[in-house]
Design goal:
This protein folds into 2 domains: 122 residues, Up-down Bundle (de novo design (two linked rop proteins)), CATH 1.20.1440.110; 266 residues, Alpha/Beta hydrolase fold, catalytic domain (Rossmann fold). The chain is of the alpha/beta class and 388 residues long. This is Prolyl oligopeptidase family serine peptidase. One of its GO terms (biological process) is proteolysis.
Length: 388
């Protein structure tokens, strides 16, 4: 993994996430160079300075985009706003829940994301899926081609990502060019659901996932028999659980297995594994709606896949980076081994040879994403090339 801050995994992981979501190395270096000394003090100190530095670059790009729009250069404006969104997202996700400016910045980058996609002419739409008295928000990117009913992958966040971050990684293009539409969802515990509607994460992910399937089955441009689900990081728990209890999913895939997240929290208390964000324990309590550590640990004990995966009766792909420093490789083997009734289960461990060896392949999402996209296309009847 590109270790921009040699002694700070969490801050370096954020740099990699920004790069994989469309950030430019020159702009990122301009942001991060003044932060190098602060980074040596640990994950939590200096996060407000981290926030200001990334926001400053985002603001510069927004101003430049306005100049482009004034000249009628809308593609250029959209590209700049698209990068500004990722820099704002990087600033926001690294702050403690109690840091007041983060909510306003989040709402702003959600709006800018939509503006950027429209200016760039993306084939996309915002969707709002009825859910109780509220809704679940998503962004849907349509596949290349003109099929009336396209196969679709529901793609869900991990612990600290948002739909805007995941949607701009390369797998969107990789799936779309293979004829697969992508719906990126802010499920409970993430993105808009958590920040704007106070919806904490749920152990029983099938509850919200089933509502999404209801919505997709009612669309005339989605093939109801070819709806799959994929999760990254903590989505490696949500997805297998949802597919196990919601039989309408045609396939499932995880990018980073998370077989026993609750057990991993006990290991984190013993200083095992790297954290994904600063202020980690405050963050997870916020995500799961826990008042204190005892409450959180009681909820965490329920977050595992043991005794569940024998219910999965559709093809399922488990992927993991060989050198993942957050979630041990052993959990990928546990998920795979327990998929005993999946007719086509597959385990792929990304190694140094192809890259993508770190958490969710943030060191190299291109090759790992292509592998996952090829597997999905093969299962859902997508394309594997222009002449295939």
């Amino acid at each position: 993994m590109f270790q921009y801050f040699p002694t700070n995994y969490v801050w370096s992981l954020a740099v990699n996430a920004a790069l994989e979501s469309g950030g430019r190395i020159g702009e990122i270096d301009e942001v991060c160079r003044p932060l190098r000394d602060l980074a040596t003090q640990g994950d939590d100190p200096g996060t407000e300075a981290f926030f200001q530095a990334w926001v400053s670059m985002g603001e510069k790009l927004v101003a430049l985009a306005e100049e482009d729009k004034a000249e009628g250069h809308f593609f250029s404006a959209g590209e700049k706003l698209d990068r500004a969104v990722q820099y704002f997202a990087c600033a926001e996700r690294m702050q403690a829940h109690s840091f007041a400016p983060r909510k306003a910045l989040y709402s702003r980058y959600v709006a800018l994301f939509q503006q950027a996609q429209d200016l760039m002419g993306a084939r996309w739409e915002r969707v709002e899926i009825p859910y109780g008295d509220e809704h679940l928000a998503g962004v849907l990117f349509h596949a290349d081609g003109k099929a009336e009913r396209q196969p679709l992958m529901l793609c869900v966040n991990g612990l600290d990502s948002t739909k805007e971050m995941l949607a701009r990684t390369q797998i969107t293009r990789q799936l779309n060019q293979r004829g697969i539409a992508c719906l990126y969802l802010d499920q409970p515990g993430t993105g808009e659901a958590l920040r704007l509607h106070d919806m904490p994460a749920m152990v029983n992910s099938e509850v919200w996932a089933s509502k999404v399937v209801d919505y997709l089955e009612a669309r005339t441009d989605v093939d109801p028999k070819r709806i799959g689900m994929m999760g990254v990081s903590l989505g490696g728990y949500y997805t297998p659980r949802a597919v196990a209890f919601e039989p309408r999913f045609a396939i499932g895939a995880v990018w980073g297995a998370n077989h026993n997240w609750g057990e991993m929290q006990k290991r984190r208390l013993l200083r095992e594994g790297e954290n994904p964000v600063p202020h980690y324990w405050e963050h997870v309590r916020w995500v799961w709606g826990a008042d204190n550590m005892d409450d959180f640990m009681a909820k965490a004990e329920q977050i595992h896949l043991n005794g569940i995966l024998d219910r999965v009766r559709v093809p399922f792909l488990v992927t993991h980076g060989e050198q993942d420093r957050q979630i041990p490789l052993e959990y990928a083997h546990q998920t795979y081994d327990q998929l005993v009734n999946s007719p086509q289960r597959k385990l792929k461990i990304f190694t140094d040879r192809e890259g993508g060896v770190h958490h969710v392949s943030l060191d190299n999402m291109a090759n790992a994403g292509a592998f996952i996209a090829d597997w999905i296309a093969g299962q859902l009847g997508g394309k594997l090339g222009p002449a295939v």
